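Quick note —
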Amino acid sequence: MTQAEIKLCSLLLREHFGEIVERVGALLVRAGAQPLRMLVGDTGLSLEQVKKALCVLLQHNLATFQLPKRGGVEYEARAERVLRILRYPRYIYAAKTLYGDTGELLVEELLLNGKMTMSAAVRKVADRLTETMEDGRTMEYADVSSTFVRLADTHLVQRCPLLPNPPRVPPPAPTLVLDEKEMYTVPRLNLTPPPEDDGIYWQVNLERFHQHFRDQAIVSAVANRMDQTSSEIVRTMLRMSEVTTASGAPYTQPLSSNEIFRSLPAGYNISKQVLDQYLTLLADDPLEFVGKSGDSGGGMYTVNLHKALTSLATATLESIVEERFGSRCARIFRLLLRKKHLEQKQVEDFAMIPAKEAKEMLYRMLSENFVALQ
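Predicted structure written out below.
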């Protein structure tokens, strides 16, 4: 990590968790994996203070522990996870736009507490919403529970790894296990008697939120390039694939034209023939946001996630170069992106820019590391 990132991690830990957690967390970010005795010695804190700080970091998924071969337990910071604290407001706002005030507060509580049981989160949010209601009305636990189920169904929250039945002689560090089939299975709750979900903890699935932001960017790009109907078709395809496509997959699961037609929003009145025409246009577009992978079911289509992200990133780079260096530099930059490698004479000829100007522009971009010399 760069020094600036390390400093930012330190400031975020101090702002959200206080000075003691910041001293322990910042040391782990700088020094890597450390045993408990080294943390006590290097931070100058008491053993009890270091233990409590580690508990906070582990509770919020900002650190992990491991049992190296040489023995003892070592703790390691998750620096990238610390930096994602900056995105907490965006996660909360996304939950609000998707599931209203109840979804917003559920995600907020889980982020504030790191890990919570479903019953505790539902009770807390229901009580908070009741406090804001007028005329003596109350928020029903069942309504909050149904929103929690919807968050789990769309994988925005997930179960935490569990501690299996402990052996008679506990090991130096526990081994946590997670049944992937149960990761999004919500327990049945009756919140009137004591809750029955003790030991089942939940956390926010940050990767799923990032997937949602990615999908929003793709839909917006399609709307800007083509029209609103095209973007709604792509949005439908992404929504149909959101829980069946891994976050790092290059493209979504293939969907038939018939499936897409049945899944379009109720108020979207386009015929099957018009849908097929739009899908053909999307598949033939040079940016290849949508690809065709077969002819069964009226045609099988996928969203090319990697190609779409590459196009969005390229457009962002080009706009940065144009803003900083001007349109002629942007023309050279786009040329190099397409051709990969060019000699200076080729740049002058292809970009149709005089030799002296082309040389100056290449040097300016080279001096600021926008292009490389090989």
